[in-house]
Amino acid sequence: MSIPTIPGITAKTITSARLTTRVLFSGADDGIPVLFIHGNASSATYWEETMVALPAGYRGIAPDQRGYGDAEREKKIDATRGMGDLADDAFALLDALAIDRAHVVGHSMGGSVIWRMMMDAPARIRSVTLAAPGSPYGFGGSKGTDGQWCNPDGAGSGGGIVNPTFTQLMAAGDRGSDNPQASPRIVMNSFYWKPPFVAAREEDLLSSLLSEHVGGQEYPGDSVPSANWPFVAPGKFGPANALAPNYAGDVSRLNTISPKPAVLWIRGADDQIVSDTSLFDMGTLGAFGVIPGWPGAEVYPSQPMVGQTRAVLEAYAAHGGSYQEIVFPETGHTPYIERPAEFNAAFHAHLSGK
Which domain holds residue 85? Predict the structure, then answer.
């Protein structure tokens, strides 16, 4: 799918040792590199305005990740590695561009990728900026700020909990608003940002959402039956399964990495996707009665996604790292699009170390 780019952005096809994909660039080739990692149901397109707003002397780089946009379709995500495939792809892209170290910026699932990048190769990271990142413990299926699994098989996370109508409409390239629960346009405008906000490039951003690869080994991926509520557990393929808690790995590794890049965490106060009461979490939906048979808050509460991230970053700071949390009021899941001036002010200061 060809999505137009804005002035100041150049799109190229880049082949690394792991993946051939579309990569967007801004700034001079010899600028300080800033690698942007997009979230789920989107692509590199979402970063364009943030990239062209970078201060002079910086080079923006944003790939379509494996499973998204113009990345080669035959390359699938091995979910059993958690964010491993996507983190490895990011480092392989830097290698292909002859870049040793870069600032890294991630949104939503892109933030989840960066947790893994930090654990695997911290020396390659100049700084970390996280916009509404997923919890280090994954998306769904865990409880408590220490990320304890609700069920031993991760039930309630992964591809099996994704609305099948939503993915069918994605695969069909649906641009309408006929289905109030699953139309991609309605999902985007209801949850990616806080209504009544509508992005100026709504059509391009919708095209970006629709460019995700859909299928049993892509999105939403496979699933397996479970004896545990809500009776479906994660499979082995695709990004939704890669976010399952049982594939997240040992999050405490963040405490022992060296060096420890400084972390800027920016989120919206009214985010309904990554939240302590996420409307995409089985615990929340069970408590609301949307998913029948909920076993109660002691067994399966809402995942405290924000609380988990804060606890992990507090431990990171206690072990010699540093972080700053900024919360934008009246803002949803995509603060860099909803409040670009405020986001860029904090982001640019972080890049310069001020």
Answer: 10-352
